[in-house]
Model the fold of this input.
Amino acid sequence: ITNRFWIRSMASGKSSVSICSVIRFCLNVSFSYFIYSSVFCFTFRKKEEDEDESSARYQNALDALSSLITKRSLFVNKNQSHRFHLLFHYLKVLELEEAVSQLKIIHVAGTKGKGSTCTFSESILRGYGLRTGLFTSPHLIDVRERFRLNGIEISQEKFVDYFWCCFHKLKEKSSNEIPMPTYFCFLALLAFKIFSTEQVDVVILEVGLGGRYDATNVIQKPVVCGVTSLGYDHMEILGHTLAKIAAEKAGIFKSGVPAFTVPQPDEAMRVNLQVVKPLDSSQRLGLQGEHQYLNASLAVALCSTFLQKIGIEDKNDDTNGLPERFISGLSNAYLMGRAMIVPDSELPEEIGFYLDGAHSPESMEACATWFSQQVKERNKKRSEQILLFNCMSVRDPCLLLPRLRTKCIDEGVEFKKAVFVPNMSVYNQVGSWSKIEQRVDDSITWQFGLKRLWDNLARGEAKTTSRSDSKEEERSLVFSSLPLAVDWLRDSARRSQQVRFQVLVTGSLHLVGDLLRLIKK
Done:
């Protein structure tokens, strides 16, 4: 700067410029730079401190949320009715009675496809310019996934503000007779608080479990209801026959409120419902799998009815009989952890993870069909299929693994190895990955039980096909943690560079979420 100043002065004939002027000028520039640097560093440091404070506040909220988690055994039968009726008291404490009654709600129950149907519905209605609120469960990575505004999960800042507003009010009024709401009940109440305050135009509400006594069923007058495919799940709570399960799901129906369902077994159709027409399979869907056409057809019926009820009409496209914004909504829908393909973060060319949170017998078959189709379409180089599996102990693996394995074999796909691991997330803690990753389940007895079942299936097939079973014992592995299993996969891939591993991760949405956390860490 000094040189340039001096040369410019000489060129203009101002040779009398003093050295003092030059020095003064340079000092001014240096001082200005010092001030700028100090302000910049202070701002950057302040931003870091704010982010740390925000993260701490969020973690404190998650810790408080974890305190509301109880074992499922506490919910069964006699406690359900009592806990459900407490919800009306909680709404009164939160001053939400009037606000909830004003919400325009689409309520969806069912065994399989609830989340997908809700996601399709939200995507369609957002295309009409409506401000949407979507409440689903469970979450895979972050609890905020359960609350979406216009398709985007709620921000940490808003979540924390709404959380403490509800938590403190309920805590203040809690007692031995009226305890704090349990985990899912609190989340449902929080959803009502968020969506009413944010003044959404439509709430798409997914039932958590069952229907009749589910926390979401505290609503009195939804615009329209839907029931997705029914199957055998949560039988210890809902009943051991399809008729009993269907009766629990039908508990969301309200007098005078239109209700739709997909084709169901005769045993489940004790209530006279409108059965939706199948969607044309030429329609492109944002969610993969043939079974998604059933979920999409229900979403179309729900959205059509909702739009009619609020006075919005739209013309059908001549090509496939759907309005253009329906076509766009169906094709742009996105739901993490369902029929989802993710390359490994370290070895993207060698390992591909095929994620599907299927955890019922029927969804296992749908998952197997989808995976087999993907294997056939993507086998451009030599590949091996590996199963990464876990299911919760409340499920019967004898109903899951045989159907998965048989369906894949029928489709011409056979797993080279089956790997069984415990989930890393734990039932009684909602928190950050840094906390969860230290809590690897000490007991892997359940995993060895899954391994024995898989080996027995393999031995049975070997006998019927006259194959030698000398290698069958090596076709399944148990690891004490998910990171160890992923390390083994990566080591195997590095040793077999000409082979691409196609890894199906299924049996539990918790397992799918744990894997996503791990590979995206």
About this structure: Confidence is low (pLDDT under 50) at residues 433-442, 469-473. The longest helix spans residues 19-66.
